[in-house]
Amino acid sequence: MQAWAGARAGAGAVLGLALVGLLWGLNWPAVKFMMTEIPPLTIRAVAFPLAALLLALITRVMGHPLGVPRDERLPLLVTGIFLIFSFNILTSLGQVLVETSKAAIIAYIMPALTAVLAAVFLGERIGRPVVIALLIGMAGLAVLASENFAALVAAPLGPAIMAAAALSWALGNVAVKMRRWRTPPLVMSVWFFVVSSLLTWPLVLVFEPLSAQHWPGAPVLWTFVYHLLGPMVVCYLLWTILLGRLPATVAAIALLTAPVVGVLSSVLLLGDTLTWQKLLSLLMIILSIAMTLAPQWKKPAPVRDGA
């Protein structure tokens, strides 16, 4: 009976992470659609504080205090800048300049970059699978670039911004790994969004003044509700709770699912063209993610108090 309950719990966790990958993947076309009526910085400026508020309420209901030890406040600030603020702002700006399906593919060089940065800053060993994964990922980007190399040379800013977003996410993950946090992961997420809110609103007031904006239509507003409740709240809640309880093989489901859903949903919902270069590049990026995580698959799941 106990084994049956454990199997059901494990299946529920797998489904939860699959849901995370699905919601994060669908967020790519959702953000692009919202930008037809809401400027990119404004989307984040409104979503960040609302996500912080909802996650704070959930955190308090779960019995966690929201306080952060004094010695962890500065590291938390820096980590939040890379992991939430910079990544989300850059992905929004990148989608203004490049197709969403292409943006999603570029962004998911994140795991390979994280492995390299972990070797540089944390002294983690880079094994052969990670080196091969990095080469495959870079080759995947080269295939993607070959789709229209002349256009890339003429307008490289969009892809460069997406690559910077991937680098920011990787730096944020390394920052998380650099110390043994006493602050629970969910509480950290709350403050990541608070920090990001405080940094984003001044940018909106300067570059996207509210007086020049108009109230969006119902389809965009409902998409924003999805963006807030799904990718922002549900995903971060499930991710922080489940990640510490599962082996990396299972946790990888979300990372492997998201780019596939992101690309295919952009093709179906936004009309992006699915070229053979995009498809091959996507397959190579997925292989790169799988190989990057492969060395971790042999390790047992970390046990984290309060996760």
* Distance linking N and C termini: 25 Å
- Based on CA inertia axes, which overall geometry fits? globular
The secondary structure category is mainly alpha
Q: What is the N-to-C order of secondary-structure elements (H for helix, E for strand)? A: HHHHHHHHHHHH
How many β-strands, per DSSP? Answer: 0
Strand content: under 5%
Oligomeric form: single chain
Rg, Cα atoms, Å:
19 Å
Largest sheet: none
Unreliable residue runs: 1-7, 299-307
Q: What is the number of independent domains?
A: 1
Structure annotation, total helices = 12
Range of helix content: over 70%
Q: Mean pLDDT across all residues, rounded?
A: 84
Topology, please?
Elements: H1 2-34, H2 40-61, H3 70-97, H4 100-107, H5 110-122, H6 128-145, H7 149-154, H8 157-177, H9 185-207, H10 218-243, H11 248-270, H12 276-293
Supply database-style keywords.
307 residues, disordered C terminus, 12 helices
Structure description:
This protein has 307 residues and is an all-alpha fold. α2 (40-61) runs antiparallel to α9 and α6 packs antiparallel against α12 (276-293). The chain contains 12 helices and no strands. The two termini are 25 Å apart. The chain has one domain. The chain has helices spanning 2-34, 40-61, 70-97, 100-107, 110-122, 128-145, 149-154, 157-177, 185-207, 218-243, 248-270, 276-293.
